[in-house]
Amino acid sequence: PTWVQMTSFGPQGIALLHHIQKLDLIRHTRIVTVDTLHLFPETYDLIAKAKDFFKLGDNLKVYKSLEGSRENFEKAYGSKLWKVDLQLFEFLTKIEPTRRALNELGVLAWVTGRRRSQGGERSHLPLVEVDQNDNRVKVNPFVVWEREDVWKYIKKHNLPYNALHDRGYTSIGDTISTDKSSEFDSERAGRWKSVAGKSECGIHL
């Protein structure tokens, strides 16, 4: 296939996977996730559960930083690279693995679970867009869904989700960029709390 679902296995990514399964498209779809080497243990647990639940098999492709492990990464760049050079950290752990996945898999189009109601740079997200960097098509089928729509869908179909959501995390990235947020905050308010005006890691920018 020349199209993939790019997912971090957030709630909307799980709901999207379920739609793909219902349409009998799992076998025609590459499911790609980026392991930043700094994910929460609960996220690794969810990836394993989702792989089994949706019977993804070899269709799930996990891409990591070229260093391959957190130990190797910290040997090469130290344990606090994100404090020293945040752009380099994001490039090595997220952007480069994403580009490598898209190129190696010959992707022409990718599907995401991004929504306008997540706020920030996503507030005016179109249903279909063309990435200005590489001319690949991005499709955002849940663009008009609200957070409540996603959770209602997950509960209705008894889908797996990250256990951290039950502990006050509304949006989950890696351990570096993610914190709890108030129920009154925007959905991605817990992302990059220490960096003013930042809510994206760079993969979609």
Automatic annotation (TrEMBL):
Pathway: Sulfur metabolism; hydrogen sulfide biosynthesis; sulfite from sulfate
Gene Ontology molecular-function annotations: phosphoadenylyl-sulfate reductase (thioredoxin) activity
Pfam families documented for this protein: PAPS_reduct
Record-linked InterPro entries: PAPS/APS_Rdtase, PAPS_reduct_dom, Rossmann-like_a/b/a_fold
GO cellular component: cytoplasm
Key words of the record: Oxidoreductase
Record-annotated Phosphoadenosine phosphosulphate reductase domain positions: 4-179
Keyword Oxidoreductase: yes
GO biological process, one term: sulfate assimilation, phosphoadenylyl sulfate reduction by phosphoadenylyl-sulfate reductase (thioredoxin)
Family to which this protein belongs: Belongs to the PAPS reductase family. CysH subfamily.
HAMAP family registered for this protein in UniProt: CysH
Entry-linked NCBIfam families: cysH, PRK02090.1
The protein's name: Phosphoadenosine phosphosulphate reductase domain-containing protein
